[in-house]
Amino acid sequence: MADTGQDRVNPRVIAIALAAALGGFLFGFDTAVINGAVNALSERFTLSATLTGFAVSSALLGCAAGAWFAGPIANRRGRIPVMVVAALLFLISAIGSGLAFSVVDLIVWRVIGGLGIGAASVIAPAYIAEVSPAHVRGRLGSLQQLAIVSGIFVALLSNALLANVAGGAANTLWLGLPAWRWMFMVAAIPALVYGVMSLRLPESPRFLVARGEVDKASAVLLDFTGELDVNLRIQQIRSSIASEKRESFSDLRGSALGLKPIVWVGILLSVFQQFVGINVIFYYSTTLWRSVGFDESQALTTSVITSVTNIVVTIVAILLVDRVGRRIMLMVGSVGMALALGTMALAFSFSQGSGDQVTLPQPWATIALVAANAFVVAFGATWGPLVWVLLGEMFPNRIRAGALAVAAAAQWVANFVISTTFPALSAVGLTLAYGLYAAFAALSFVFVWLRVPETKGIELEDMTDEATVRRRRPQPETQTV
Fold this sequence. Notes:
Elements: H1 11-44, H2 49-77, H3 79-98, H4 103-131, H5 137-141, H6 143-166, H7 179-185, H8 188-199, H9 205-210, H10 214-225, H11 230-244, H12 261-275, H13 278-291, H14 296-324, H15 326-348, H16 364-393, H17 400-428, H18 430-451
Helix pairs in contact: 1-4, 1-6, 1-7, 1-8, 1-13, 2-3, 2-4, 2-17, 3-4, 3-7, 3-8, 6-7, 6-14, 10-11, 12-16, 12-17, 12-18, 13-14, 13-16, 14-16, 15-16, 15-18, 17-18
């Protein structure tokens, strides 16, 4: 049979999806860049545990605001301008954070960067979805998650290299500035790349149709997406836009504490994803590895290895999710995380010293090291990518945009809470901190078992308002022959 071209992918759409996904790279980079600098800046500004936690997580406040407002601004001004502004905000934040003269202005610069990251984290996947052909949308959309974990890896790698060259994060590197300041300023490089690449991207055909620029939209669909029936696709976009004009946040209302049950499922998925403490590993892992006996150089190198592991298991998750299903992978991940975190809590019950001087004797140092990496594997292969997959699938079409906004905001807030409270919890004892995260991991298993729908094999148009979709998943044949 002749090849109709339906299954071919235009290399140009892959290229623009990769460029747009750089927004996720900035997200991941900023998530981890603070890791190598946290001890040095804490000493430089003489910060308490609570203020250290706030300085680390302050960017998340900007992220929440940036994510919330990015959608409406993109609908008025376009996707590309939002990407460019996001890159500019991140560039300003990188330079400002590196030159900060007090913890107050450091926090301000971090919040400014957060605004850009939050905007990019929303616009990048939306843009990719709008320019991607339907038969490869899932794979191209997964570039966002890969970009995030790749950004984490590059940030940790650059931290390790800069600290090694200077002989320590607090030591002077170039131009009389300590290495920790350069850790922030090097983020200007991906910000500039993202800004330049964004300027070269075509505008979303969906936005162009909404503005009445049908000819431009047709050109984008034909030249980049490889759409064969451009007129049909334009009509589909028009119908979708007309439908969404009738949407409002009031559609999320229900009898369960003011929101529909399925919206609460999305919120709690986001909260549990953060309450298991994953960002403690990426924000504070260098401190953790030093407590098990590593020097600063070894700790930074181990953090880089951990981030590589995260990339590998994310790829594994992408390969498995459509074969195994969402619910079973989440539940397996919950069990794995609970066991790993519980082991870390047990190991630190044998710790010696207090505060920043906590150390672990053998064999508990090795056990804690293995358990921490097992936790990253369990999270990265399940809860890391799959929560985003579910949030994109589980909501009915008419409330998807609003429900996603609420769930994403909940995720940023939960991230902020965990990141801010960890230094204070660890000051009391790391056994308490990791024991608490282990408890949330165990609760996440119960939550998934009782309330999370299985969306594998179900069309988006068939999703319901109730969190009972899993009872409607395709069943195996039971007839006998």
